[in-house]
Amino acid sequence: MGLDCLLVSTNRVVTPFPVYPLGVAHLMGALEETGHRAQHYDLLARGGLDGLAGILEDHDFGLIGLSIRNLDTVDSTAPDAFMEGVIETVAFIRRYSRAPLVLGGPAFSIMPETILELLRADYGIVGEGEEMLPWLAGELAAGRRPAEKILRSKPGGAGWRKVVYDQAIADHYLAWGGMLNVQTKRGCPYRCSYCSYPVLEGRTYRCREPEEVAAEVIRVGSEYGAKCIFFTDSVFNDARGHYLEVAEALVRAGNKTPWCGYFRPQNLSAEGLALLKRSGLSAMELGTDAACDTTLAGLRKDFTFAEVLRINELAVEQEIPCAHFVIFGGPDETARTVAEGLANIEKLDSSVVFAFTGIRVLPGTAMHQRAIDDGVMAAEQPLLEPFFYFSPHLREEELDRAIKEAWRGRFDRIYPSSELQERVTRLHSKGHVGPMWDMLVRRRR
Asked: What is residue 158's predicted lDDT score, i.e. its pLDDT?
């Protein structure tokens, strides 16, 4: 016998633009395929907690799941923490229901013990939930309460399940940018010092069949009205070339919906970019992350700035708008590397550059140990609230001033990145589609 489940997306953040809670869409499909019944309530799309009261009053759920996407903004210039909102949501739910409360999502998986204790939930699922959540629902439906509170999934254990979007929720996100999300693979083999993706998804790629991805892109366009697709892979252009197979499948399927995604400034050729453009690629977001070889090495990026320049040149040749995301103030940063980095960025023609300062330290990452070794933080430093690593070789105020002075008057160099938010919201409200920074590149051209 199946269980009645309610999945609540707790994210209420719209920076840099509202993003459909894709992880819950995958869980909805997994629950349905295993005989359970599920509803999805999105706090952002449904107007906050007020609308949740009626659902909780009208239904006797056997399980309520909370998806916690982000701990904070990861931006030292606007370091808002989000757990207070989640605490408020849990307290609200407990007024109406004593159903077992299950936590999940990327933020929970980074600090499961801490967050489970903070929210006093019944269970938590670390990592992908497509296998563990239906299993837990089955146990609860059978009247069994597992003794283990934190359930850890094996990456890829359940395979790829059907993705179930909610039309009413999708309509909200489509009204602010026209975008919906699709994932082509999970996992990340790279070892960037600050990144939690390998902790969350494992270090081995698990890819969806290219034809399945293409069918999904066509479906979210035709059935749900998506005018742009964002591929949410940690890195779209994998070294094995699965991304090219996806592009070929999109071309065969006759895709007309423009798409964008996260790219690594490696593993790209002129021929490959031409294929991607034919398949619908309209903009690239590059995880450049640092602006000179010294700081790239400090972040363990395993590529050089010369490679970054070459990929940017290829994008310009194909007239594909390109955004670089760069962090200043990381390991081995000095006044000299800041100056070198700002000079290097000037070579990135026809592109937008977003700068951040400081690195959000997360447990389980190499950055955590580096911060301790450099004396920037104590080993016992709590990390639920945002804590940022800044190189001990420079002062934060000097770094801030150097970037602002170098980019004064530049509309295609964005710092602090939060400054773009108002412009993006205004453009989306007028019906413009996509990430919006790409318009800055087109304006420059």
From this structure: 65
Q: In 10 A of CB 226, how many CB atoms?
A: 26
The residue with tokens 């975008």 is 179
Whole-angstrom Cα distance, residue 249 to residue 230? 16
Cα pseudo-dihedral 292, 294, 299, 304, rounded to 10: 50
C-beta atoms surrounding 50 within 10 Å: 9
pLDDT at res. 443: 59
Q: Where in the chain is the domain with CATH 3.80.30.20?
A: 177-444
Contact 374, 356 (CB under 8 A): no
CA 126 from centre of chain? 17
Contacts of 130 (CB under 8 A, 6+ apart): 26, 27, 29, 30, 157, 158, 159, 161
Torsion over CA: 371, 287, 169, 167 (sign):
negative
Q: Which residue has the higher pLDDT, 428 or 183?
A: 183
Please state, in angstroms and rounded to a whole number, the distance separating the CA atoms of residues 187 and 43: 28
In angstroms, rounded to a whole number, what is the distance separating the alpha carbons of residues 41 and 53? 11
Q: What is the pLDDT of residues 404-421, one digit of tens each?
A: 999 999 989 999 987 776
Tokens 């019906």: give the residue: 431
Find the mean pLDDT for residues 215-238: 96
Domain 4-152 CATH (choose: 3.30.70.100, 3.10.580.10, 3.30.590.10, 3.40.50.2300): 3.40.50.2300
Strand-pairing partners, residue 8, are 41, 66
Tell me how far CA of residue 155 lies from CA of 73, 85, 186, 198, 201, in angstroms: 26, 29, 9, 10, 6
User: Which distant-in-sequence residues (6+ apart) come within 8 Å of 26 by Cβ?
Assistant: 129, 130, 161, 163, 183
Looking at the DSSP bridge assignments, the partners of residue 286 are 263, 324
Q: What is the CATH number of domain 177-444?
A: 3.80.30.20
Structure tokens at 180: 């919906």
Query: What are the tens digits of pLDDT across the range 336-353?
Result: 999 999 999 999 999 999
Residue 432 has pLDDT above 80, yes or no: no
pTM of the model: 0.93
pLDDT at 359 over 90: yes
Structure-token pair, residue 129:
């939930």
Cβ–Cβ < 8 Å for 42, 172? yes
What phi, psi does 223 have (nearest 5°)?
Answer: -85, -35
Sequence-ordered strand ranges (E) for 17-139: 37-42, 63-67, 101-104, 123-126
Alpha helices in 283-395 (DSSP H): 293-298, 305-317, 335-345, 366-373
Q: Which residues pair with 104 in a beta bridge?
A: 67
Residue 16, amino acid: P
Residue 206 in tokens: 């698990």
